[in-house]
Predict the 3D structure of the following.
Amino acid sequence: MPIRRKKDRMSTEINAGSMADIAFLLLIFFLVTTTINQEKGLPVKLPPWSEDEVDPTQLNTRNVYSVLVNFQNELLVRGEPMQLKDLRDNAKEFILNPQQRPDLSEKPSKAIISLKNDRGTQYETYLQVYNELKGAYNELWEEQAQSQFGKPYEELTREQRKEIKKFIPLVISEAEPIDTQGG
Amino acid sequence: MSKFKKKRGNTSPAISTASLPDIVFMLLFFFMVVTVIKNDESKLNITIPKADQLIKLEDQSVVFTMRIGKPLAQYQEQYGSATQLQINDKFVTTDDIQFYLEEKKVKLPEEKRNKIVGSLHIDNKVKMGFVQDVKTELRKAGQLVINYAATQGAVTGGGK
């Protein structure tokens, strides 16, 4: 009798010892195939499509910060050549106009940045110019958040952010590129 | 007393491995959930530019990826060495963007359809003319939220 009981028990039990091995095998497969590199990038909102483009240069020239990038990747900012590294600070000064100079923007909410490039401009330069302009705004928002609410921009509520963006709205207008090389 | 002591010394303290499968399964499920199986391998030679004002794309399922660059060496014989646009494993023209965008929309659940982000992976050396054509096509298709893929890094002012 005792022998029979033992046999009975053995036949009903499934050996779960290899379960861990199987699971490990699957685990390693998923470990190898997984890529947790989250995509990062510069977010941009394009204007809706319309046949007739608005030309920002027709507006009050005082409020327009025109940035032109030619096919040799050189910058022309408001008629003056400029290095990429100076662009951010220059743009910030233009938008905020702390000294109330008559040739810079009346107030931050009226500032318009007009970005125009050549069809032959290299993408890297274009993106970095865009990055600098975006950076100028990000820094201005950060400074405004610190002085108005005493907190970093990241920690503000939705309403507070809205208020700041109303004071300093991000306006980057991109014109159709010019074609000087037939490219 | 001595008997008791002897017994303790003899038995090796075996660690129970009964819960090991459970732990491994837990890890397994985590990776299974996190894994996104990619089906669009890049056939283009793309080095994305560096920038420092980046934002993470949170939801990968709404990302509509477009790649622009020159084909890799093994594809150049077949497709030439001119700049190409790649969507979902295929080289397409700018006119096809609208079609593939529509296809992407159909696959998504309804509440996610207006949240699509067009992600542009563009090589450093691509000329803006090509990028502009793609952007114009996206605007015509009503896909206004886009994202220029970039890696974190100091801006060098390259291209010179």
In short: The domain at 44-152 of chain B is CATH 3.30.420.270 (Nucleotidyltransferase; domain 5).
